[in-house]
Amino acid sequence: MNKTKALSVSLVLSMAFVLSACGKNNNEASSSPSASAPAATESSSPSASASASEAAEEDLKPEDGASLVVWESKEFRANLEKVAQAFTAEYNIPVKIEEVNEPDQINKLVNDGPAGVGADVVIFPHDNLGKAVAAGILLENDYFQDVTTSENSEASVKAFTFKDVLYGYPRSVETYGLFYNKDLIPEPPKTYDEILEFAKTFNKDGQYALMWEITNFYYAYQFLATPGGYVFGGNGSDANDIGLNNEGAIKGAQMFQKLKSILPMKAADATFDVKKGLFTSGKLALDINGPWAIADLKAAGVNFGIAPLPSIDGKANVSFSGVKGFAVSSFTKYPNAAKLFSRYASTKENQLLYYKDLGFLPSNKEAATDPVVTADPLIVGILEQFKNSYPMPAIPEMGNVWGAAAAALTDIWDNGKDPKEALDNAVKQIKEANAATK
User: Fold this and answer.
1) In terms of Cα–Cα distance, which of 57, 56, 43, 53 is closest to 93?
2) DSSP class of residue 228?
3) DSSP letter string over 333-361?
4) Contacts of 429 (CB under 8 A, 6+ apart)
5) Which of its termini does the chain have fewer beta carbons within 10 Å around, N or C?
6) Signal peptide location in the record (predicted)?
7) Distance between alpha carbon 55 and the CA centroid of its chain, in Å?
């Protein structure tokens, strides 16, 4: 086994524990998000788990005349159609896939569910779980709780557990890394200062050294967190302790603002599709992106690699990490059928399909160690970045952060606003929104 492959295998084997061992809160340096978590056990063998799963699926009978609506993002719809067709062939339950972006699904279900026009099954990032549970729009993952828990990484199961109740069926774990075009820049930069230097000679004739979705807080969090900022204290559970305008966060926002000198465009213009077009055409050397971008770049024939994000002031970069999964709407007319689909769509076999087609990193422990995954050197950079990632807080108040943070970042980037003033205003907005929902 060569060195790269050995590293890949080692990293994937540890993926079950990566999220729960990720970056520490700056005001709780001695504790990680999983400090109080019980040790993982090996009480279930793969064969026992498979037998339990088959027995459960045999016992759970779908309702007569059941049909399902499942929401999925446009870019992933074709893949889920494959899964839905196979499910229909096995269970004789029609499934319609409708396009709704994953991050928008919980908000949409809050409105559409009571009106009887929402999805039976939704797919969303775990940070929306607290809001969903508070709104009463999800059913527990009760019937498949044991098999879900035994098959998936502890961290992914915890991500979809709220107040000791499991709601989700994990599908994938993720963070983002530094994609680099090897034909333009053979070795990935280690620091943002290196990127600033590289841009001095590379940026010309519509070429850019670096791009990311500028004011999308999911990606921009790294700039605030790496020097010492954080969203909520108490390992993401204390909404009264907001660290987005502390000294570290302000220092990071200054670096963020400095990068406009090498990316002179409006924040709204740095979209996923724009980045993809520039990267595949050789006009973008470095792209901050996630594993979901791998399949398209491979298909386009780009000679690229993936590395951990650049450090800031000598500190290892702290990215956001997350878990995505399925959940059943509490408004569904067919809860048994919806649970069967959520289980079916989140099995090892389908998680491997998502990996092959879309580059999603499996939450299923066996899928994560499958040779199909471990043989791909591109995942090494993403999994290295996982070591320093921090899980998005899942408390309901997290829903008040995204818009306020994006507005502050836009003010800093597009309007040249003083970072401290912009972040102070963002924290003020978050606090006011939190107070209004109590």
Assistant:
1) 57
2) T
3) S-HHHHHHHHHHHTSHHHHHHHHHHH-PE
4) 400, 404, 407
5) C
6) 1-21
7) 32
Q: Which has the higher per-residue pLDDT, 71 or 5?
A: 71
Measured CA to CA, the distance from residue 238 to residue 397 in angstroms comes to 9
Q: How are beta strands 230-232 and 238-243 bridged, if at all?
A: antiparallel
Once rounded to an integer, what is the mean pLDDT over residues 136-145?
98
Residue reference for tokens 């559409």: 112
- The structural domains of the chain, ordered by start, are 3-31+44-174+322-378 (3.40.190.10), 177-320+394-436 (3.40.190.10)
Between 381 and 416, the higher pLDDT residue: 416
The stretch 206-223 carries a mean pLDDT of 97
Contact 109, 131 (CB under 8 A): no
Place of tokens 């990127």: 195
Q: What is the pTM of this model?
A: 0.71
Q: Measuring CA to CA, which residue among 375, 370, 329 is closest to residue 347?
A: 370
User: Amino acid identity of 240?
Assistant: N
pLDDT band at 54 (very low <50, low <70, confident <90, very high): low
* Residue 214 pLDDT greater than 50, yes or no: yes
337-355, pLDDT tens digit by residue?
999 999 999 999 999 999 9
Given a cut of 70, whether residue 13 has pLDDT beyond it is: no
**Which residues is 311 bridged to in the sheet?**
191
**Residue spans of beta strands (DSSP E) within 147-207:** 161-162, 165-166, 169-174, 177-181
Q: Residue 285 region, left (φ>0) first, then alpha (ψ -120 to 50), else beta?
A: alpha
For residues 219 and 405, the answer to whether their CB atoms sit within 8 Å is no
Look at strands 121-125 and 95-99 and give their pairing.
unpaired
d(CA 98, CA 80): 10
Taking the C-alpha atoms of residue 198 and residue 188, their distance in angstroms, rounded to an integer, is 11
**Cβ contact 141:335 at 8 Å:** no
Residue type at position 218 = Y
Matching residue, tokens 């836009």: 410
Contacts of residue 300, Cβ cutoff 8 Å, sequence gap at least 6:
280
pLDDT at 225: 97
Least confident segment among 39-53, 270-284, 315-329, 408-422: 39-53
Beta bridge partners, 312, equal 315
Which H or E element spans position 103?
none
Rg (CA), the chain: 21
Instruction: Report how far residue 150's alpha carbon sits from residue 279's, in angstroms, rounded to the nearest whole number.
Output: 40
In Å, how far are 290, 354, 362, 373, 383 from 4, measured between CA atoms? 20, 23, 20, 13, 13
